[in-house]
Amino acid sequence: MSVVSRATAIAHPNIALAKYWGKRADGHNLPAVPSLSVTLAGMATTTEVAFDASLDRDELHLGGAALPPDAEATRRVAGLLDRVRAASGRRERARVVSRNDFPTAAGLASSASAFAALALAASAAAGLPTAPALVSDLARKTSVSAARSAFGGFVELRAGRPGDEALAATPLAPEDHWPLAVVIAVTREGPKDVGSSDGMRHTAMTSPYFPAWVDAAPSLFDAVRAAVLARDLAALGAAAEASALCMHASSIAASPGLLYWTGATVEVIAAVRRLRAQGTPAFFTIDAGPHVKVFTTPEAQAAVGAALLAVPGVLRTITAVPGGGARLAPSSGGA
Ligand code: ADP
Ligand code: DP6
Ligand code: CO
């Protein structure tokens, strides 16, 4: 009978207001640009990790299905577990049972909540310290955006620098700093064709606009950061929309061009601009997928939701508010 050490963690996805897109070339999964996000309550990944000496390889069960050993997700999970084994001196393989309560690999930041939850659960199960900065660094080594989901509220992650190996996100302001509301216009079901890691690698390698994006991103980040601290929705909207559009412009100019948008994506952008022209506070951001995330005030959330649902091609909306960082599930002792 083998001894099993297990822990369960829950983490939320986050949406970047100042985008990360592109890695430094030095191979440590370091972002080329600074980013700033809001962690969202209302969507979550729950992940249980059980180190078990009777296993001969790491297993990933995602959404009720056992993934093959050579699946991309299984390999990413095993890579994170290898780091945990190296740091803790443990040698057992682990069974990882995870579920996302929102679409996976669709541009809704499943890699962020997934690897933040996995980093916390695996660290706890292996008996490693679980301070959020350590969880953030461990998660970042597998998916950069996951570094930010270790923390709740408004979270920043600086760009990598030469010689960095450790790099964790830092909390900028707690979730109750600013009661923003988010309406996500879902424009397609199912996973995207090009994952974020591949999309940004292709952009960095082939887009003549990628260097311009890397040049522009820090001042867009500064503007986003100042607007968040000042709780200035109009200034935040201008900077966040510019960050998203500059990021997408760099991908659209890649060779061949990488366009994450559909017609419905553009229709939602137009609808947000119409809402704003009519005096409703709202701005959009778009990640590596066709959905549009619209930020507004709690008072205007219902009107914004109704307006987005009326846009042709919008299948449904998901509403969310700022939420907390990754946490261990109750009774998840980690031993
Ligand atoms: P997204 O926009 O959803 O973050 P990405 O392309 O960045 O899309 O990442 C999706 C990948 O993250 C999946 O293909 C899979 O490898 C991994 N992933 C997502 N959810 C989980 C999970 N719960 N457990 C393990 N890996 C996951
Ligand atoms: C457009 O963190 O998913 O959502 O680091 O390769 O795992 P990897 O990519 P990922 O990229 C997220 C890109 C983005 C913008 C953002 O979240 O900052
Ligand atoms: Co992702």
Automatic annotation (TrEMBL):
Domain Mvd1 C-terminal, first and last residues per copy: 182-308
One GO cellular component, as annotated: cytosol
EC number(s) on file: 4.1.1.33
Signal peptide (from-to): none
The UniProt record lists the keyword Repressor: no
Single GO BP term: isopentenyl diphosphate biosynthetic process, mevalonate pathway
UniProt cross-references to PANTHER family, sorted A to Z: DIPHOSPHOMEVALONATE DECARBOXYLASE
GO molecular function: ATP binding; diphosphomevalonate decarboxylase activity
Keywords: ATP-binding, Lipid biosynthesis, Lipid metabolism, Lyase, Nucleotide-binding
NCBIfam families assigned to the protein according to its UniProt record, in alphabetical order: mevDPdecarb
Diphosphomevalonate decarboxylase-like N-terminal domain: residues covered: 11-167
Family designation: Belongs to the diphosphomevalonate decarboxylase family.
Protein's UniProt name: diphosphomevalonate decarboxylase
One Pfam family linked to the record: MVD-like_N
InterPro entries in the cross-refs: GHMP_kinase_C_sf (IPR036554), Mev_decarb (IPR005935), Mev_diP_decarb (IPR029765), MVD-like_N (IPR053859), Mvd1_C (IPR041431), Ribosomal_Su5_D2-typ_SF (IPR020568), Ribsml_uS5_D2-typ_fold_subgr (IPR014721)
UniProt keyword Lipid biosynthesis, yes or no: yes
